[in-house]
Amino acid sequence: MHTLIYSSSSARILLLSGSTCFYLIFAYYTGDMVAVMTSAPTPPSVSSFDDVIESGYRVLALAGSSAATVLEQADSDSSMGMYYETNMMDDV
Fold it and tell me: Which pLDDT tens digit goes with each residue over 27-83?
């Protein structure tokens, strides 16, 4: 390791203020990067029931629950109704 010898106080002050400035920039950048990576919301992958069918998700609804009732009462030509008739009619 090298020993740096600064005889003038202005060089010491410049080195101290420069290193402090670079440390603050580094701390801000890394803190912002960690915050964005850990707390940024992901875009929703499901925006309609058609997305459920296209993505191959399974729909779980307990018999007699409000979710099962919504699926049972859906129009047969809608995506919910078609999903209920093909996959859930015997189970619920």
Answer: 999 999 998 888 877 777 788 888 888 888 888 888 888 988 888 888 888 888 888
Please check whether residue 50 is in contact with residue 57, taking contact to mean a CB–CB distance below 8 angstroms: no
Q: Which residues in 4-42 are b (16+ Cβ under 10 Å) and which e? A: eeeeeeeeeeeeeeeeeeeeeeeeeeeeeeeeeeeeeee
The pair phi, psi for residue 43, each rounded to 5°, is -65, 140
Domains identified in the chain, total number: 2
Residue 1, domain member (yes or no): no
CA dihedral 52, 55, 61, 65 (to 10 degrees): -10
The answer to whether 46 and 52 have CB atoms below 8 angstroms apart is yes
Range of the domain at 54: 49-88
H helices within 1-92, ranges in order? 9-39, 49-55, 66-72, 79-83
